[in-house]
Design brief:
alpha/beta, Rossmann fold, Arc Repressor Mutant, subunit A, six-stranded parallel sheet
Length: 234
């Protein structure tokens, strides 16, 4: 059975480094400190023939060992576990195993946790309240090389934008943000818009203040949820 993604993905945004699809079996390690939870996750993930569950870990420290030993190409990991911070493990993999994809499966849907995991290098963030088919869809999306925020995560982030109007941001500011979010450097963006790199930096910093975030990852995520980074209608 093949699962299709029920929601749009963060295509072409810099909240995560987009990659090519995983070739061959998707070798997966499940990381959660609760044995019953790991068993449940394993049970429903086994419904997707594309996934090959090759191991489990009960902490970030244990995950580092298991990943080194088993060499998976995708890790599904919880946020709150005893031992070293999960962000430390994800950042380590991002530097040492750049082809390894990390998807967070967590009960925490607040901005602090979401941004921390994305900043560390996670390519997806899914809440445990999601339907199993949606969790599978997210895992498969990341395996295809897409970045992924699940429907519930986007809904939680969208709550703070219910009174936000897209016209609160100028067309120029939106254009700058879309170019930088699309992986254009400040220099490339400045050259295309006939401004200086300092002007680009000033726009980004001003937008970060408007959205009340402290990282570019947070800005891109918030702007996408607010509808500022959707493709222009033709």
């Amino acid at each position: 059975m093949t699962y299709t993604a029920p929601t749009p993905t963060l295509d072409a945004l810099s909240v995560a480094t987009l990659r090519t699809p995983i070739e061959g079996p998707i070798r997966l390690v499940i990381v959660d400190d609760h044995p019953v939870m790991r068993a449940g996750i394993r049970a429903f993930l086994s419904a997707a023939p594309e996934l090959e569950i090759i191991g489990e870990a009960e902490s970030a420290d244990d995950a580092l060992v298991q990943v080194e030993r088993l060499r998976p190409n995708l890790v599904l990991i919880d946020v709150s576990m005893p031992g070293s911070p999960v962000t430390k493990a994800i950042a380590h993999w991002r530097k040492t195993l750049p082809e390894l994809r990390t998807v967070v499966l967590s009960a925490h849907g607040d901005q602090e946790h979401i941004y921390a995991m994305l900043n560390a290098g996670a390519l997806g963030y899914i809440l445990k309240d999601e339907h199993p088919r949606d969790i599978i869809a997210g895992v498969l999306a990341v395996a295809r090389g897409e970045a992924w925020l699940s429907g519930l995560v986007r809904a939680k982030l969208a709550d703070r934008h219910k009174m936000f109007r897209s016209d609160d941001i100028s067309a120029f500011e939106r254009h700058v943000l879309k170019m930088v979010a699309g992986r254009k450097s400040n220099e490339e963006t400045a050259a295309a818009l006939a401004i200086t790199p300092e002007d680009v930096d000033h726009v980004i910093k001003r937008l970060m203040q408007r959205f009340e975030v402290t990282t570019f990852t947070g800005l891109v995520t918030e702007a996408w949820v607010a509808g500022l980074l959707q493709p222009d209608k033709k």
